[in-house]
Design brief:
Elements: H1 21-27, E1 38-46, H2 63-75, E2 78-82, H3 83-89, H4 98-106, E3 115-118, H5 129-132, E4 139-142, H6 144-154, E5 159-162, H7 173-182, E6 187-190, H8 194-202, E7 208-214, E8 236-243, E9 249-255
Parallel strand pairs: 1-6, 1-7, 2-3, 2-6, 3-4, 4-5
Antiparallel strand pairs: 7-9, 8-9
């Protein structure tokens, strides 16, 4: 055996099994019996690590990624996203088909999960689609310094919550999760952007990462999927790897501990 492979077991991955729609949902089921928040991130990146194409993550998506994106939303209690991502991607409320509403009811979930927007400033437009095109009011998770002003402007169309911790000018990840847990929103899905994902990673609050690898080379100055000042080394293990006919890879990594 070559010295370079000594002690390492390699496996060849290939198309060994087809996954139908019903079984696909099983790949993205949350753990049973949750009594605290389980934080899942869903992101997309190019082969060379770019997180956006033409300024949008959605610019890289094809049919398979959009299908997985929807399935993860249907499984979640709440979708946490940064205000910048809401603006850039033109978010609306979650749309849930009848069949998935029934499945959610059987799991004890509300029929439609709310969007929870993380914003330090509270600067959100009242005519934004996640206010005007939604069945359930969003949560606005802001900080102490801007809470009263934000509640005064947006309290009629959203539930505005002070999610600060020790720093009154910042949203705190632990406080944010406490806010969601108090409402029984344990199945947390974050769709970024990079600063929100970086916050969860930096403070060791991310339980799993679902990363779609798009078969694209972007080059240029495209950002990473996570950003922030803190560097960590959290060990993850692969839970599954799927692929589709368009060459997209759908990875799911969970905590190794």
């Amino acid at each position: 055996m070559s010295d370079t492979a000594a002690g390492v077991q390699f496996s060849v991955l290939g198309p060994t099994d087809r996954v139908d729609d019903g079984r696909l949902s099983d790949f993205y089921a949350y753990p049973d019996g949750l009594q605290h928040c389980w934080v899942r991130a869903n992101m997309i990146a190019s082969v060379d690590g770019g997180a956006t194409a033409d300024g949008k993550a959605g610019g890289m998506a094809e049919a398979g990624d959009r299908a997985v994106f929807r399935l993860m939303r249907y499984a979640a209690d709440v979708i946490v996203v940064g205000a910048a991502t809401v603006r850039v991607e033109n978010y609306s409320g979650v749309q849930v088909p009848v069949a998935h509403r029934s499945a959610r009811q059987r799991r004890g979930q509300a029929e439609v999960p709310p969007i929870a927007v993380v914003t330090q400033s509270g600067s959100l437009d009242l005519d934004a689609r996640f206010f005007t095109h939604t069945e359930v009011p969003p949560l606005i998770l802001t900080c102490a310094d801007t809470f009263e002003d934000t509640r005064g402007r947006l309290g009629g169309v959203a539930e505005v919550v002070n999610a600060s911790g020790p720093q009154p000018d910042r949203v705190d990840g632990a406080t944010l999760l406490d806010v969601l847990a108090e409402r029984g929103l344990y199945r947390v899905l974050t769709e970024g952007g990079p600063q929100v994902l970086g916050m969860f990673i930096e403070h060791d609050q991310l339980d799993e990462l679902c990363l779609t690898v798009a078969p694209l080379l972007l080059g240029g100055l495209a950002p990473r999927i996570a950003s922030g000042p803190g560097e960590v080394h959290t060990r993850m293990r692969p839970a599954h790897l799927l692929c589709d006919d368009d060459g997209y890879l759908y990875t799911r990594y969970v905590r190794a501990d």
